[in-house]
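From the shared-data thread, chain only:
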Amino acid sequence: MSSRTHASVVIEPIQNGFLVHDPQSGNSWNAKTLTEAAGLISSNSPVVVAVPRRWVFLRVLRVPDVSKAEVRQVVGLQLEQMLPVSQNEVAFDLHLTNDVNSEGRLAVVFAVLETHLDELRSQLAAAGLQPSQMLPACLGSALIAESEQLSRCLVVSPTGSGLAFDVVRDGEVVYSRETSVSGSDEVIGTEISQTLAAAEVEDIPILFTGGLQSQFAAKTVEESATMHLGTPHAGRIGVHLESPKVAMAREAKKRASRNRIAVLLSLIAIVLWTGVYLQKRDANAKVASVKAKQEAELRTLRSKLSAAEAKVLSQRRILETLERAFAPSQPLGDVLTVVTNHVGDGMWLTNFSVERGKVMAVRGTATSNDSVSFFVTSLSNDSRFRDVRLLFANNAMIDTTPVVQFSVQAHVVGNLPIADQVRASR
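Structure, as tokens:
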């Protein structure tokens, strides 16, 4: 989509109708139908549509630092992993932010069910409206936050269906939700807490828009966040949610136009066959060059994707090793405490040995075989141990006192080695 240079009227679908926002006058109106909404709009006014938050899936991820068209190809391959719906059921677009690090560029992906867009576009066509852009409504929060010089904040906005909560970080919307609540400050406070927890942020200023008053507001403005989608700056964001069917139809129309031109050129070729032949040869060379370049770029992207997946797998293995090291099922100190609790009267432990991933060994001295039997039985009945075995129980004398020297081994349940051993291949 090309950027807009003039303000546009914004149409926002709500629960029982539509809201019409006019940035020129600063006014908003309710309309029950799009036909009624069309009657509120001047015939020469451009129109944009604010796609409701309840329709939009929002995901934030790192992508290769390449062109948007190339990123779309990569994201299109991963949509089914990011969304709870099939890739063939959604239309999506993305916004490439200025946040670039060693892992790539931060991108915000917006996706909506194709059925929602098809139904809305049919209604717009029936009302004689042809929007120049279909934007996620939550982008209005980023624009109004920018106008208030807030690079990070929570924007709370009335939507006509309830309240919307959009988290803005570094000037970008990274989390968005819409609720049907519009009640007391207590209810709003609960929704704010839930939003901040879900977005994993805290201690950010809260901006209330549309004249909404609250004790939680760090700042309140009379303007509607959605109305900012009609400003020229919204057009420069470059996001446009479009049904794949509509895009394909537009491309088919372009192809049909090109085909008509091709037929005309064929007729001209009867007279100017030499010139056309030379032009065609040059054109084919250019197409082959462009195709080779695109294939090389695609191979590079696939290589980067494979490297990223390998890196994720390596990091996952490291995480598993760390979890096994710092969060064992049974800390060895606890094992010693539990074994000591099973020692009965007339029994002393003389040696205790246990290591990560190895069998526990216990040696001791008892005054009778019954004490040893009691100790072995007690350990066997404890769910923390398995395969408890008495290795030996030898009678002996300490001065003039008969004693039994014994050795017991057992497996500590969950006592795994910090890292799995890798066998060397022959």
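Residues 273-326 form the longest helix (54 residues).
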